[in-house]
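Consortium newsletter contribution from the modelling node. Members have asked for a concrete example of what our holo predictions look like. Here is one, prepared for the biotinyl-5-AMP complex that several groups have been discussing at recent meetings.
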Amino acid sequence: MTPAPVLLFDQTDSTNAEARRRAEAGETGPLWIAARRQTAGRGRRGRAWESDTGNLFATLLTTTRKPPAEAAQVTFLAALAVADLLDRYAPPSLVTIKWPNDVMLAGEKVAGVLVESGVHAAGGLWLAVGIGVNLAHAPAGTERPATALAQHLSADVPAPPSVEVAARELAGCFAVWMERWETLGFQPVLDAWRARTLGLDGPATARLGHETIEGRAEGVATDGALRLRLADGGLRLISAGDVFFGEG
Ligand code: BT5
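And here is the predicted structure:
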């Protein structure tokens, strides 16, 4: 599958917001919208994404005929694509995924994924698959520690890729997973994702709005939802929320 073209802006509010505006104006993509800087980069649930120059901010605008429940699987493709990109520059053993959408480098967050969607007036579901990767620097003072690719380069790699190169390579890595997903279905994607994801079989705490649920992760269901075993023996399937893995 040919990677979608990349449009690189010097600055925008948020590449996801730009993708949404274009989708609402009828654009279907596929198109990657990237920016060197975002003035209003966003994470999930209204949180902010630190977006200073030097890091990668990119959103794939695309349109699918898949039902919304299946379309949500793109978040897994995005995490795998970022992991493959990082493997080229950092020791692959340091690159892991944290359910559902964080990519970690040496145990600290290096990238996040934010998928938004809506219905085109002419039919079909648009998807905005937003990806932020800390190439050059990591913000200080985040709730959980953050890192950047520049801090963990492989011995033979002198510098992280430029934003242009990283955007192009990310588009290529994503296209590979998109093709597997479209031709083989979700199972092989989920298997590859599971192989890179840590913490799926230990203590975990899920925060869902105001509710906090303690339990033990027991892997993921066939749709990628986290299986959380509760103290009373019950099982909760968590498909969205913040989950902290490990003790405390
Ligand atoms: C995410 O949200 O991890 C999704 C981030 C998606 C960002 C991309 S950039 C391109 C596109 N355009 C956008 O406007 N967004 C997407 P979440 O899981 O909610 O994590 C957000 C939390 O991570 C924040 O509350 C901070 O604690 C922390 N954080 C903020 N900026 C960070 C950074 N650059 N690196 C690591 N952690 C960060």
